[in-house]
Amino acid sequence: MIGKFESNKDLIQELTASGARHVGNIANIITGTVAEVTREIGDWVTDAIEMREAAAAAAADAAAQREADAVAAESDDEPEAVVPQDVPVSDAVDEQTAEFIDAEVVVEPRQY
């Protein structure tokens, strides 16, 4: 037969182990949630950066189109086709686009 002391020791041991498991599970939940929230915020900021870059590119395209339209309106001749020329990368970068880096974003699949 088990004595009262040993019974109480076993009860305390089981309660402590159970509490530790539950606290560990809660910590894992919190850690996973923080990681997912951080990932979502990062994705949101990436989207905002891409939208800003797209808006800048659209503005540059619109300005170039307005300039081409103005030149065509001033000219009585038939408009000539614009043929792109090879321009060294260092000469092609102006002050407005110099702050942007063209990069491919690779997103790792989420692990659940």
Question: Could you explain how this protein is built, in words?
Answer:
- This protein is mainly alpha-helical and 112 residues long.
- The protein has a domain at 4-69.
- It is built from two helices and no strands.
- The chain has helices at residues 4-74, 89-92.
- The longest helix has 71 residues, at 4-74.
- The two termini are 48 Å apart.
Write the layout of secondary structure elements.
Blueprint (H helix, E strand, L loop, with lengths): L3 H71 L14 H4 L20
Give the structure's gist in a few sentences.
This protein has two helices and no strands. The model has no long low-confidence stretch (mean pLDDT 82). 67% of the residues lie in helices and 0% in strands.
Biggest β-sheet: count, sense, barrel? none
The secondary structure category is mainly alpha
* Silhouette: rod-shaped
Q: List low-pLDDT spans.
A: none
Helix content: 55-70%
Order of helices and strands: HH
How many helix segments?
2
Report the count of strand segments: 0
Q: Please give the radius of gyration in angstroms.
A: 32 Å
- The proportion of residues in beta strands is under 5%
Distance between the first and last residues' Cα: 48 Å
Mean pLDDT: 82
Entry keywords:
112 residues; 2 helices; single chain; mainly alpha
